[in-house]
Design a protein that fits this description.
alpha+beta, two-stranded antiparallel sheet, four-stranded antiparallel β-sheet, Ribonuclease Rh, Chain A, 10 helices, single chain
């Protein structure tokens, strides 16, 4: 074999090895969807249930996929589920390989790794999230992997607690539409529903929207750690949980309600 042929063959072998390594990496890392057993258990001391006021979402984030599809609009005047966040806030992507974390952080959904969920849980999420197909995987990898529970338990508890919170919040905010609402009124309502001190576990988050000024955007409810949100019989009641979460700062104290 001539010297030139040996060089060409060596280069070809090297390129082939690189291709094999790349494919192996893609299969083992980029396309590997970790099971819940691979993630660390949570050692957080509390969690936040984070809800978004539906009529505010599309004004603040018109490029949101649920806004572009019209799905958010079909839900009407209600609080929609954003997520359930183990605290402290920097506790994210627990045990998630960087390659997957980078993909999961892209809410455009182009390379979002999926999450194994029961069909009933998936359908429930689609009915109360802006776009469960993109938001649910993001929320699982960013926050759920730090919760110490399985994806089905994580999202089932988040959905059940959202439904309970809606019964208190939706009538109040619907009545305030077109006007303004005070944080103090929301906190008083929670004190009346769930006991003195419950209102101190509620925080409002506001956003500036062109033509509307400062509007109510999100609401945080302080709760115990995710691992303590249920019993063997199912999700515990919000009334039983909310006084067990640490108090929250006020966030914004008043804002418009679209």
């Amino acid at each position: 074999m001539r010297r030139g042929d040996v060089v060409v063959l060596s280069i070809s072998c090297a390129l082939a090895a690189i291709v094999v390594a790349a494919v192996t990496y893609s299969v083992r890392v980029l396309d590997h969807k970790p099971s819940s057993a691979e993630f660390d258990s949570s050692d957080s001391s509390s969690s936040w249930l984070v809800l978004t006021w539906g009529p505010s979402l599309c004004g603040a984030e018109p490029t949101n996929s649920g806004c572009k599809s019209g799905h958010v609009g079909t839900q009407g005047s209600t609080w929609i589920l954003h997520g359930l966040w183990p605290q402290p806030a920097d506790k994210q992507y627990c045990g998630v390989p960087k390659a997957i974390a980078d993909r999961a952080s892209d809410l455009r959904g182009s390379n979002m790794p999926s999450v194994d969920l029961g069909s009933d849980v998936r359908n429930t999420l689609q009915s109360m999230m802006s776009d469960a197909s993109t938001l649910a995987p993001h929320e699982w990898y960013a926050h759920g992997t730090c919760s110490g529970v399985t994806p089905d338990v994580f999202f089932s508890d988040a959905a059940a607690l959202t439904e309970q919170a809606r019964k208190v919040l939706d009538p109040m905010f619907t009545e305030a539409e077109g006007g303004r609402i005070q944080l103090s009124d929301v906190r008083d309502k929670f004190d009346a529903e769930y006991g003195a001190g419950a209102g101190g576990r509620v925080r409002l988050s506001c956003r500036n929207v062109t033509g509307q000024g400062s509007v109510v955007y999100e609401l945080h409810l302080s709760l115990p750690p995710v691992t303590e949100l249920r019993t063997p019989d199912g999700t515990r009641s919000l009334k039983d949980l909310i006084l067990k979460g640490p108090p929250l700062g006020p966030g914004c104290r008043h804002a418009s309600v679209p």
